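Schema walkthrough. Field components (list of strings):
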Amino acid sequence: MKKSNKISALVISTLLLFSAGCGIKALPSAEVNYLSAEDGTLTTRAIGIGKNKEEAIIDAEKNVFNVLFFRGLPASEQKIALVGTNETAEKEKNKEYFNKFYIDKRYKSFVISSNPKSDLTVHKGGKKSIAVEVKINLVALRKDLEQNNIIRKFGF
Amino acid sequence: MKNNILLFAILLLQTSLINNAFCQSSATNSGGQVATVQPKIIVIPYTKEGEDLRTVLENDENKRIAIAKIKEAFDSRGFTTVDFVAKLKAAKDNNVLTSENQSDIKSQIIQMSGADVYLQVEVIVEKGESGNSVKLILTAYEVSTGNSLSNKVCESGKFYTEDFIKLASKAVENCIEDFLNVMQTKFTDIVNNGKSVIIDISFDAGSAHKMSSEMGVDALPLSDQIEMWMEKNAFKNNYHIQGTTDLKMIFDDVKIPLKDQATGNNYNPNKFALELFKFLKGLGLQPGKDIKGSTIYITIK
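Field assembly_structure (string):
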């Protein structure tokens, strides 16, 4: 009896270790909706997830850029992905730029405004989410990508 | 000994002559930098049959606004377009226009401007009880092949206003970026897969050759020799034959690279025509070549 308990404990702990080690990284959420566009700016409503309000807002802002770069935003003027649809390859190709952009928070310079539009909601498992209205300087963002040779300038 | 000195002097003179003839002048030397030749784009208004282009534009401020707004969008992307009105004026002043047919005049202006791409704008004004609106139909084509680059119907939305200039302007703003983004994806495709040229190969009236004439060491018909050459030389083996008769062979779409794959310099239809010219010479033929925009005409004597 004792032996079988030991075996089952070993099996459970091994499974737990495996599930922790091989956990699939969560893809960024695509919950970004187009609201309006005016004079080179783009206003969106995005959902962000985090441990607290600040973290959730940052996540929402990053989601907006992720969608613009690698998916395109339907109904907006940027329906086509700004950079390309294969985000893993694109991020790998321009590692330095994207590290600076996301990790060093360079993306903040393209955010004109970021206003929370809901209270922080607590979900099952303790995750908290928030809806944020994010306004982006799209013209400046495109220029920056062009200048850093991430995308090609208009023309050949 | 004297002969050797003379020979050396001649060689030295030849080298200096070659240097003078082919070396880049120091005034224009860019240190090996190559700027990609950009396509020329012209924005033109849509006209119905028989309408005079210039009066249409002069009398319709909505069209002028739409065109100006579109050109502004190109400018904001750092791209300069060819001015249609200036070209039209120059053509009329110089009496270049030869036809009374307005649609022919349009083609003549496009040809005269040297544009690679033309963007046609149709402005539709709609008046109604629930408000007025302006619709625009934007279409961009590659001049040489007629390939469509981008199409879009832009709408201002309905407003209770008689200010159609504002509505036309709003209609452009609503869709121009999307339109340019689609155009850019087509340009990227051209950069990656080459640009299209048309090749028209025919025979001079007094020529002793035909497409079925057997040529070369393997004595194959000329049309097959040409196709084999095209197979090797079209960029990424991408070409399309429109048709072959005994007197003519037309390739309606042959891809050529934008850059010389060996040197990195700009590549153009003229350089491709020269390669084909050399090949035909190698077969013992006497070809003549003419290049008009992106169409290569080869005439075998």
